[in-house]
Amino acid sequence: MAIFLTEASKVIVQGMTGSEGTKHTTRMLASGTAVVGGVNPRKAGTSVSFPQGDGTVDVPVFGSVAEAVAATGADVSVIFVPPAHTKGAVVEAVDAGVPLVVIITEGVPVADTAEFFAYAQDKGVRLIGPNCPGLISPGKSNVGIIPADITGPGRIGLVSKSGTLTYQMMYELRDLGFSSAVGIGGDPIIGTTHIDALAAFEADPDTDVIVMIGEIGGDAEERAAAFIQEHVTKPVVGYVAGFTAPEGKTMGHAGAIVSGSSGTAQAKKEALEAAGVKVGKTPSETAALARELLSR
């Protein structure tokens, strides 16, 4: 079992023929992901040769997502297109009936995200991102830009706003491994929240401990804390990035901005601890807490 992504997932890449799309498609294939097609209207009918093992694999390029889905049965799309074209790419994937759309692109206008998120919700499509590293079910499938070789399969579920902290946590707990790791992105509006991932991990029989990484800004972590208190029976450990962030400054992610006491790391830490979540002061301390819980 894994959440959102399994070895049976068939993945298409919107923007596969661009430099980022090509680079990360190569990595996804190398980690065992079933990449079944790319989409580029200008290169429809061609194919791209990628190294795989000792040989190569040819991945066909389709003129539209609908054509790719009809030909391959794809059920996941990952988007590597510039910000100005992201809304169109997401709407196209939603219209084609792809149930899971992963948006890696950074710098997508918030108004565009609000529009395509509402559209996807109406159609019952799950979005992950934008401005996210994607998700991985180690040993099964890897969609996005998460390094596949820093951990293996295991019993920990990870949900994180931060890409780099996702990688650090996976590396620190690499000997224990992960059922799935989901990078949800740090924009003010994102398609999948901490709560969505917590609910999925709670329902996943192969996840025993959940690690949740948040950051300053907004109230997502406080809402997640309330959800954990009501609905999550599995042990959860947390980390909140940004204890030293100055008030009123946007830090890294577009959503990471503190206004007064709202959105501070301390307020989030207190809310999580009140819900029974053990919160580490550093990523390494958080990893040690997870290790301790898993060994019980």
From TrEMBL:
Residue ranges of the CoA-binding domain? 4-108
Entry annotation: catalytic residues: 253
- UniProt xrefs under InterPro entries: Cit_synth/succinyl-CoA_lig_AS, Citrt_syn/SCS-alpha_CS, CoA-bd, CoA_lig_alpha, NAD(P)-bd_dom_sf, SUCC_ACL_C, Succinyl-CoA_synth-like
EC id: 6.2.1.5
Indicate which residues the UniProt annotation says bind CoA.
Answer: 17-20, 43, 104-106
The metabolic or biological pathway listed in the UniProt record of this protein is: Carbohydrate metabolism; tricarboxylic acid cycle; succinate from succinyl-CoA (ligase route): step 1/1
GO BP term (any one): tricarboxylic acid cycle
Q: Which GO terms describe its molecular function?
A: nucleotide binding; succinate-CoA ligase (ADP-forming) activity; succinate-CoA ligase (GDP-forming) activity
| SMART domains noted in UniProt | CoA_binding
Q: What GO cellular component is one of the record's annotations? A: succinate-CoA ligase complex (ADP-forming)
Q: Which UniProt keywords apply?
A: Ligase, Nucleotide-binding, Tricarboxylic acid cycle
Question: Does this UniProt record's set of keywords contain Ligase?
Answer: yes
Q: Which reaction does it catalyse?
A: succinate + ATP + CoA = succinyl-CoA + ADP + phosphate; GTP + succinate + CoA = succinyl-CoA + GDP + phosphate
Broad EC category? ligase
Its job: Succinyl-CoA synthetase functions in the citric acid cycle (TCA), coupling the hydrolysis of succinyl-CoA to the synthesis of either ATP or GTP and thus represents the only step of substrate-level phosphorylation in the TCA. The alpha subunit of the enzyme binds the substrates coenzyme A and phosphate, while succinate binding and nucleotide specificity is provided by the beta subunit.
Which HAMAP family does this UniProt record tie to the protein?
Succ_CoA_alpha
The record's note on quaternary structure and interaction partners says: Heterotetramer of two alpha and two beta subunits.
Q: What is this protein called?
A: Succinate--CoA ligase [ADP-forming] subunit alpha
Q: Say which species the protein is native to.
A: Cellulomonas uda
What is this protein's gene name? sucD
